[in-house]
Amino acid sequence: MMAQYLALREEAGDCLLFYRMGDFFELFFDDAKKAAAILDISLTSRGEHAGAPIPMCGVPVHSAESYLARLIRAGCRVAIAEQTESPAKAKKRGGSKALVARDIVRFVTAGTLTEEALLEPRRANILAAACELRGQVGIAACDISTGRMELEECAPDRLAAALARLGASELVAPEGWEHLPDDAIERPAREFASDAGEARLKAIHSVATLDGFGVFSRTMLAAAGGLIAYLDHVGRGKLPLLLPPEVRASGAALAMDEATRASLEILQSAQGGRKGSLIDAVDRCVTGAGARQLAEDLSAPLLDRQQIAERLELVGWLHEDALLREDLRASLRSMPDIGRALGRVVAGRGSPRDLGQLRDGLGGARTLHERLVRKDELPVLLTRLLPALAGHGALVDLLSRALVPAPPTERNQGGYIAEGYDGALDELRRTAGNARRAIAALEAKYREETGVAALKIKHNNVLGYFVEVPQRHSDKLLLPDSGFTHRQTMAGAMRFNALALHEEASRITEAGAHSLAAEEAHFEELVTAVVEARNAIAATAAALARIDVAAGQAERAAEGGWSRPEIVEEPCLSIEGGRHPVVEAALAVQSDRFVANDCRLSPQDRLWLIGGPNMGGKSTFLRQNALIVLLAQAGSFVPAQSARIGLVDRLFSRVGASDNLARGRSTFMVEMVETAAILSQATERSFVILDEVGRGTSTYDGLALAWAVAEAVHETNRCRCLFATHYHELARLAETCDALSLHHVRAREWKGELVLLHELAEGPADRSYGLAVARLAGVPAKVVSRAKSVLDKLEKGRAETGGLAAGLGDLPLFAAAEAAREEVCDILRERLKGIDVDALSPREALDLLYELKLQAVAE
Ligand SMILES: Nc1ncnc2c1ncn2[C@@H]1O[C@H](COP(=O)(O)OP(=O)(O)OP(=O)(O)O)[C@@H](O)[C@H]1O
After folding, report:
1. What is the pTM of this model?
2. Tens digit of pLDDT for each residue in 209-224?
3. Which residues cross the membrane (predicted)?
4. What is the ipTM of this complex?
5. How far, in Å, is the centroid of ligand 1 from the Cα of 594?
6. Distance 604 CA to ligand 1 centre (A)
7. What is the rounded CA–CA span in Å between residue 317 and residue 383?
8. How far does residue 582's CA lie from ligand 1's centre (Å)?
């Protein structure tokens, strides 16, 4: 056994090995230690290896799923080694000591789950593959629980942002790749071959060319090849559901990098959970599929005004008609998750219950279609979605005729094919039923014949049917001519067989086996019918999800008094009465009111410097505007009285000195790396929020950096930007930057107490209130008073010297300083251009070089 185990262990690689032994999956050696610790089960030992006891732990097969779920959540991957022959067969093959053959039948990994119990209903489960070809990165992503597959291509420096958008549970990449992302599972580089990828996709979808699905680059196909090869590996050759791949055009979505996503807490709060995130505050979907679609929408808001308008039109339509919305949501709520049921069926892990879910879901979609199609003036998006809801009539009828109303999750007991579907099956069931009745009649007959009133006919899995009498009444049945044969003696009872009973029991067993086989055959037929219709079923699931998202957004808008944003081309951002959905919800819990604020950015006034006290609401204001942009471009209503938004191509959010120690960089370093990314990437169509950039270093350095960054954003990037800062000195930028204006969050000191008004006003902040906030926070009065005297001294010094920013007014503007440097370069460039290198003698060339060098240094 050890040799077999070690061979499988080797094959399992870095996965834990679940080694099937009878009714248990056993784990040995380090696997056992690791699993026992994670699962909190006892670690025992069995036998010896190399002179030491072998650590072992195990989990029962029937409850393996919940243990697997915990291991996967803890970041493990598991190889399942099953017995591939029965013990009887092994004995026949190799005698009584023969070892049952075992093989790894499947790998269970975070990205390749299909089991309902292991998946979160409201979250997509993405497996991604990435690789590089000729300087471009290809990414293939799929959710095998629903089969959706997407291919994209990007530059290597966009890889992190693309992966952040996908939020994959598992990522595979070629081993040794220069851009190998953290946490990627390394796979042999040869698996990422574009030819093989293309061939596999064609074979999976039975097409001669992929042109019908879109235009795919070699890079994308190479990534697809890597993805499919990995799926082959984990499924041991059995592929899950894969729908035709879709191309995600680069630039189709609002670009957001990882830091922006994290700081805006879109799908996850800073604490790591869904609670406190944007999606938690906006999700009113009634189906898991709707919630998954919403998460995708929020992760990749649109850039196409037409598409955004179509989504908004549908939300608006459902917003206006509350009755229809409620009705629609009630129907959707009762519908099963057909996308995932389909995924399981196609992966070969479907159950009768999954088929029942498909029947109910597709039937529900058909009813919804009938109801909606009768309405006048349907929104464009809905008219496009509606056809996908119908068209499954024949399949729904087949499933309805074939299945019982509530089919079980297990197939081995049968009983899921409905009566009337198959005459022969009904006959078999009748035979079994008759035999059961005959057995009941036999019991009465035997009682009468033997005169033992306590005689019973019972059944168990070992003996089958038998007659049981109390020990003291057994004499009569033990008589040689009684017609009963003794089978077993128990404490206080005796068990017998009888010919008539045996005959009836055989009839039941035989009919049972036949009907089970008949049901099994019907199950396979039904699965085939579903598999054939897989693309159409997936389209129905997607349409239902999209309708649920829109209805949920309409519901959320009605609940919170949200409005429909207007998306325009010119780079403006006019938000009246904007609110932060998460902060507002948190305040509502404590019955506090959120103070709505306006934001009015335009090409003439595109950078707002926002000052004001700590806790005054600066960060909240910055973020709420970013979130409103994000929601609007995702096609949602927004928490504002009105919003006019110039389409944003990239969204950046930076919070000064946020903690990112996990990456081993100092907070200030992180802040600067992130700021550098903005300065190099933000365009005139971008929207940037910068929250206290520069605060992570000394005052002078911080102020200098904040100053230069604000100037560069104003002069070079020319994007819309909200810049929160504590440096009063920055206010002087308003003197030189004409599209920059000063704002502050208001506060008042009233009877010595600080009152934060959370209200945005024009003009610079008058003072910091830092000490007042410290007092509010409970810093001891003695310390605050000492700070006050230090502050007085500092302020006196500032008044005398002109303060930290003294003299900065004479500094040439960022662009002007840059231009001066450019000029020098231009003179040199001009001279270089004029040189005919071939006409120079070596001596002349050397002289020229000296001259140029002299000029460059002199300038
Ligand atoms: N518009 C608002 N209406 C009501 N309460 C608000 C508003 N904005 C912020 N708050 C409350 O004030 C708290 C602090 O807000 P926020 O973090 O935005 O302040 P800040 O000015 O960025 O502070 P700091 O400078 O210390 O980072 C929030 O957690 C919230 O409870």
Report:
1. 0.83
2. 999 898 999 999 999 9
3. none
4. 0.97
5. 10
6. 28
7. 13
8. 12
